[in-house]
Amino acid sequence: MTEESHIRLVLPGPVEVRREILEAQTAWMIGHRQPAFAQLYAQMQTKLQQTFLTEGKVFVVASSGTGFWEGASRNCIRDDRKALHLVSGAFSERWAKISQANGKQIDVIELDWGQGFSAEMVADALKKDRYDALCVVHNETSTGVLNPIQAIGEVVAEYDETLYLVDTVSGYLGAELRVDDWQVDLALTSSQKAFALPPGLAACTINEAVLERAKQIEHRGYYFDFLNLDKYHGRDNTPSTPPISLMVAADKQLDDILTEGLEGRWARHEQMRQITAEWVEEQELGFYAEAGYRSPTITAVANTRGVDVPAMADFMLNEKHFAIDKGYGKIKGDTFRIAHMGDMTIETLQEVLAGLSDFLGKG
Ligand SMILES: *Cc1c(COP(=O)(O)O)cnc(C)c1O
């Protein structure tokens, strides 16, 4: 049961975390150079591989997802080559900036916010130039767009020197993702989105092609040097102090996720997408994301009715004890986002939508 004062998060990160998972963090501390830690690392590793559907390695560090953006760009793009970034929203835009901030050369395919990329667009670009990496955001959290990772992967796979780098921060564990089958070379995520953990842990799958590339790059940075991470990974450990308590919670969360089943979890998110879409239509509101690309973890609602979004958020907070999102960046107010990710139940989503309906007077 939730306490009277508890505000439930309906935000696209950090998301609501279940009590049992919060409590798992209170286990007694262990040292990361003790055997108990190596055991924790190893058992978590197997579960991470099962959930990313990869036989590759999954690095785990104390960081938010942004850290692995930097790591991916630094370790995968050679100094005299370029990366191609697919940009259509706040997060894909930021990753492109991060590549540049690390001195990397980039080209960009830019679409209007709310649009998704097609394999054809990528195929055209890869025919014209050579790239060390193709960087794409699986689930663009700012706009509610889910990009076709599998189809794009088929195109990228035709180019040996082009690594396929995927940000799945708000996709992983909410939207279907099959790292190996979809020919993804690197997939990065963080703990506070559909993983439904507190913030502070980031994970990144890599394959041998990524490590081979990293060997050709001199300045890989230090904290996210993949070769150093790999060295410690071989000992079921991390170069610097990991977020131990959070890893204990993550290990339990992974057990619960595998009990629900990956496909069951994807199906629940898909159901939440549908329920939310029906509500949007009933309310005569719009969708910001183009049809065919709408995310199972977040719906960006186009505010076609001129709803006073800050007033609605206040109502939800004070009357319903839900914290809701008011839109992101330049589309704040013109849109608001309903996050339906993580361990959210169908019942909770229905409560959220009923609360919004109360405010909008169409309940
Ligand atoms: C939240 C988010 C990020 C940034 O992740 P942090 O963990 O906040 O650093 C990156 N990409 C996407 C798609 C996100 O939703």
Tell me what you see in this structure.
Helix content is 40%, strand content 16%. With 363 residues, the protein is of the alpha/beta class. 46% of the residues are buried. The model has no long low-confidence stretch (mean pLDDT 97). The protein binds pyridoxal-5'-phosphate (PLP). The site of pyridoxal-5'-phosphate has 13 residues, from helix 3. Pyridoxal-5'-phosphate binds next to helix 3.
Strand order of the largest sheet: 2-10-9-8-5-3-4
* Name of the CATH homologous superfamily of the largest domain: Type I PLP-dependent aspartate aminotransferase-like (Major domain)
What is the CATH-assigned architecture of the largest domain? 3-Layer(aba) Sandwich
Structural class category: alpha/beta
- Low-confidence residue ranges: none
Radius of gyration based on Cα positions: 20 Å
Total individual domains: 2
Overall spatial form: globular
Q: Which molecules are bound besides the chains?
A: pyridoxal-5'-phosphate
- Estimate the helix proportion, in percent: 40-55%
**Topology as H/E string?**
EHHEHEHEHEEEHEEEHHHHEEHEEH
The CATH class of the largest domain: Alpha Beta
